[in-house]
Every structure is written in structure tokens, then in C-alpha cells.
Design goal:
With 343 residues, this protein is α+β, with helices and mostly antiparallel strands. The protein has helices at residues 9-13, 53-68, 109-125, 144-163, 170-193, 196-208, 243-257, 262-275, 280-291, 294-304, 313-328, 331-335, 337-340, and strands at 20-29, 32-39, 42-49, 86-88, 91-97, 221-223, 229-231.
Length: 343
């Protein structure tokens, strides 16, 4: 019997006053899963949460805060006992309404603007958030320097072993050739983040409150028939400054385009600024975070730790080369960042 077939869906769904017509599994790993639940009241989505109950309480509290400030997130359905989730065998399951609509496209000027404005509104809506005392929030606030140093030094250890070895494969040869450049670039980013701009923003956010989605991208957004944009997949909500989400969204958009684009970057920053204005020093933090080679480090990390076990060496080589080339296209934009920062 497969792991997914062992899930106690009948027991979990018996906690809700719904009539079930059909259940279809969308995705599954042992610690998390997603099911489409067709009911007589429309389609619902059941999720098995990989977080601990204490962390899930933080996420639910964050969702309440965001929705209370105007962010559209699919409504969570309460159980017959008035609970917002079901706990079964130390796992948490949550049922929510499914939103009918389409994912926005980065290729549509109107929809791209909707995404960027949505992110700015999301960050603005997160102001005033404070975690519950009995929850265990995800938090990256103030931890970037330590985290980035650990990431780059961890990869340097693997690189040093490969550089000192003979008879290495094509993947390792590529890493040996590329790593010194990206190591130097990472050090520049880390040195910059040790400055007052990052510290001041962290100190301010600790007082005002802040949340990041961590994957505010087209695939996690739905535009319904009325043009309203809903934010999905809030399982990774973390406490951190807005720069984290901005960097991730910019990388997604530019990667989709194949390379960094100066004019498009300026347009995106301008749209964001019109909804949630940032100071020049905060935009400098965004620049420093983009300077750190997250995508290249992520690609070689996957290879060294074999995180995608089904991937061949050829697939890893393709990904590492792609990320190295893409990251380098950002340099002209980052060198002129001060010229395109909105004022």
C-alpha cells in the first residue's frame, strides 16, 4: 500500500459538514500533501501541513492579520467544532475553498503590474504583525549575514575538495571554474549587508512588524473572473524584511525572460514604490541581496547534496551552467542600480 493511500482522509474530512463527491490527489510527500475535494458546495482543497502545530498556529495567525488588512487568501473552512484545522496522528490538515481563475503571466504588462502591486500591498498589510506567544514562528529577520556566510563556506568546502582532486567529472570541473567568481561576489554582498542599511531596516521591522511570503510568484497567485488576485501557498510565511520577497520575485521574472533587463527592472521597482515606498538605503539592501548568488549556490548545493535524486549528472550540469550564466547577466543592472532606484 502506498503512503498516500494510507492517509486518514475519511477520518479528517468527517470533521467537516460537507458532502464529498470525489477526492483527487494533487501532490504528495510523506510530510505534506494536497487533495482536491469535490463537494456539493463546490471544490475544496485539503492540505496536509509539514510544519509543526506551533508553527502552523503562527501561519494561521499571520493569515488572519493579512486578510484583516485586505489581502485575499482562500477562506479556511472551520470544522463542525469550530476549529481551523484537524490534528490527526500529530499531523495538521486544513481545508479551504478552491479559487477558480488563472495564474497571472509575467509576459502581460497588466498582469505583471498586478503581481508587483500585490506584493507591495502584501508587505504593507504585514505591518503591525506580532506572533502569538504560544506559536513557533518562522523567522529570518536579522539572520542574513550568518546564513549567507554558512551557505557559501559550506559550498567552499566541497569546491576545495574538487579543486584538489584529479579526475573530477564535468559537473565538478564547471564548479571549480565558476566558484571563485561567485565566492568573491558573495563576499561583497555579505560585507555590504554588515553595514548600517541592513541593520537599520531589521531594527525598524522588528518594531513595526513584517511578513514575507517567500514565494510570491505567478504560480502561487490566482486572478478570478472579477479580476481579484488571491495569494496561495502561505505555508512558508516568515518574519523578515520585504527585500527577501522582492529579490525572489525579481529573480523569477528575469529568469523567465532569460536574462536581466535594465528597463524592466526599473519598471518593477517603480510599480512597487508607488504602493509601498522604500528609502534609498532599503533599495540598497535589495541590491546587495541580488548580488549574493542565491541561484548559483542553490544549484551547486543541489548537486553536492543530491537533493534531486532522479537527476542525472547531465541535468545537474545543465542547471549549474544555466544559473551561472543567468546570474552574470545581473551585473550591469546591479552596477547601475542607483540610477534606477525610484525616488
Amino acid at each position: 500500500m502506498s503512503l498516500v493511500s494510507r492517509e486518514p482522509l475519511d477520518q479528517v474530512l468527517s470533521n467537516y459538514s460537507i458532502r464529498i463527491k470525489c477526492i483527487r490527489n494533487e501532490s504528495y510527500k510523506e510530510k505534506k500533501g494536497v487533495w482536491w475535494i469535490q463537494t456539493d458546495e463546490g471544490m475544496k482543497i485539503l492540505k496536509k501541513i509539514s510544519n509543526s502545530e506551533e508553527t502552523f498556529k503562527h501561519i494561521l495567525h499571520a493569515i488572519e492579520h493579512l486578510t484583516g488588512n485586505g489581502i485575499l487568501i482562500p477562506e479556511i473552512i472551520s470544522t463542525v467544532h469550530g476549529n481551523r484545522y484537524v490534528k490527526f496522528d500529530d499531523n495538521c490538515y486544513v481545508l479551504s475553498n478552491a479559487i477558480e481563475g488563472k495564474n497571472p503571466s509575467y509576459n502581460s504588462c497588466h498582469e505583471l503590474e498586478k503581481i508587483v502591486r500585490g506584493l507591495a500591498k502584501f508587505h504593507k498589510a504585514s505591518e503591525g504583525f506580532s506572533p502569538l506567544p504560544d506559536s513557533k514562528p518562522k523567522c529570518h529577520l536579522g539572520l542574513w549575514v550568518e546564513d549567507y556566510e554558512q551557505q557559501i563556506e559550506d559550498m567552499k568546502r566541497f569546491y576545495s575538495e574538487d579543486a584538489a582532486s584529479t579526475g573530477i567529472n564535468a559537473v565538478s570541473k564547471t564548479i571549480v571554474n565558476e566558484f571563485p567568481y561567485f565566492y568573491q561576489r558573495a563576499q561583497k554582498a555579505i560585507d555590504g549587508l554588515k553595514g548600517p542599511e541592513y541593520r537599520d531596516w531589521v531594527a525598524e521591522a522588528a518594531v513595526t512588524g513584517c511578513l514575507c511570503h517567500q514565494d510570491f510568484a505567478a504560480g502561487n497567485l490566482i486572478i478570478d473572473s472579477k479580476g481579484r488576485m488571491y495569494v496561495l501557498d502561505t505555508d512558508s510565511l516568515t518574519i523578515d524584511i520585504a527585500a527577501r520577497d522582492i529579490r525572489k520575485l525579481l529573480n523569477k521574472i528575469m529568469k523567465k525572460a532569460g536574462k536581466w533587463d535594465m528597463d524592466l527592472t526599473g519598471k518593477i521597482l517603480g510599480i512597487y514604490q508607488s504602493e509601498n515606498p522604500l528609502t534609498a538605503s532599503k533599495w540598497q539592501v535589495v541590491r546587495l541581496d541580488l548580488l549574493f548568488p542565491h541561484l548559483f549556490i542553490g544549484a551547486i548545493n543541489k548537486y553536492y547534496y543530491r537533493r534531486d535524486k532522479e537527476w542525472s549528472d547531465e541535468k545537474y550540469l545543465e542547471r549549474i551552467r544555466e544559473m551561472a550564466a543567468f546570474e552574470k547577466t545581473a551585473i550591469p543592472v546591479l552596477e547601475s542600480f542607483h540610477k534606477i532606484i525610484p525616488h
